[in-house]
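2024-03-11 09:14:02 INFO worker-7 job=invfold-0412 stage=load source=structure_tokens
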């Protein structure tokens, strides 16, 4: 019933019970349905976020592993660089002597040409591609460092094998080249240096090497021949006695014999020769402090 007090009218309406209940239920069901829908939507969103989070965790773990590998490679490269820096140091005397060696000797010692530098083409894309490119680049750099390290080691070996120090301290009584023979006065070619010394003065090896010969050899008298490798060898004549034997390995500065006057000699001195690829050369070209 609806009553209008101003006009005194009363209106009556009749509503079916079932329809009224159904309408009421619909009104009450709307918030419930909205709540259920929101809950289902939230569950779906949470499930999607969980799946995305798991995927991200897997990617993070993969990047951590890749980062760890890159860090290990970088650490290895740093160690290689530090080691190469130490090995690359050559004393000035040896370095100067190496630079005065014939080009073919230095080329053979270094073992060929250098490796070309790697070139990156393209632009980094996804993180996966970036890590892949970095791993490949570090791998190439490791190989290049190994090559450089080998070259440094060979240069060190060449420096150790280059006769760059004086075998004895003394003044030069006869130089390399043409001279007047001290016995008959005729023109003569002198194949080495005569360095004056006192009888019994120790003679030191000017470089690392192996004793090829230590015996009496005609005009040379007691002769020691050292093979230094890389086509380099040295001879020491007129010794009073030996301090080494054939096939013995010697180091730079090691005593190999003693000054004498054996063979074709006028007084106690050392006759010193250097051969490069079997060819005689002036020892002054390689001696330090010449």
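2024-03-11 09:14:09 INFO worker-7 stage=emit residues=290
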């Amino acid at each position: 019933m609806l009553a209008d007090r101003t006009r005194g009218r009363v209106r009556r309406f009749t509503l079916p019970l079932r329809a009224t209940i159904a309408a009421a239920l619909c009104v009450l069901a709307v918030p419930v349905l909205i709540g259920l829908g929101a809950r289902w939507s939230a569950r779906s969103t949470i499930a999607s976020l969980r799946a995305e989070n798991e995927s991200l965790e897997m990617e993070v773990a993969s990047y951590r592993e890749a980062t760890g590998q890159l860090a290990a490679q970088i650490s290895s490269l740093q160690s290689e660089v530090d080691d190469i820096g130490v090995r690359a140091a050559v004393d000035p005397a040896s370095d100067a002597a190496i630079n005065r060696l014939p080009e073919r000797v230095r080329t053979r010692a270094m073992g060929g040409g250098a490796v070309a530098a790697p070139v990156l083409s393209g632009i980094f894309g996804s993180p996966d591609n970036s890590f892949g490119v970095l791993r490949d680049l570090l791998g190439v750099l490791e190989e290049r460092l190994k090559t450089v390290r080998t070259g440094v080691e060979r240069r060190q070996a060449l420096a150790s094998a280059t006769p760059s120090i004086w075998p004895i301290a003394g003044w030069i009584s006869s130089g390399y080249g043409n001279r007047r023979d001290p016995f008959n006065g005729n023109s003569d070619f002198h194949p080495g240096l005569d360095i004056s010394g006192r009888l019994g003065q120790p003679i030191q090896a000017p470089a690392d090497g192996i004793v090829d010969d230590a015996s009496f050899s005609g005009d040379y008298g007691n002769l020691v021949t050292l093979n230094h490798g890389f086509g380099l060898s040295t001879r020491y004549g007129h010794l009073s006695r030996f301090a080494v034997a054939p096939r013995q390995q010697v180091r730079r500065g090691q005593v190999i014999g003693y000054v004498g006057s054996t063979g074709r000699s006028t007084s106690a001195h050392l006759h010193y020769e250097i051969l490069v690829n079997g060819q005689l050369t002036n020892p002054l070209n390689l001696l330090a402090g010449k």
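2024-03-11 09:14:09 INFO worker-7 stage=report msg="Helices lie at 17-87, 92-99, 103-110, 127-161."
2024-03-11 09:14:10 INFO worker-7 job finished
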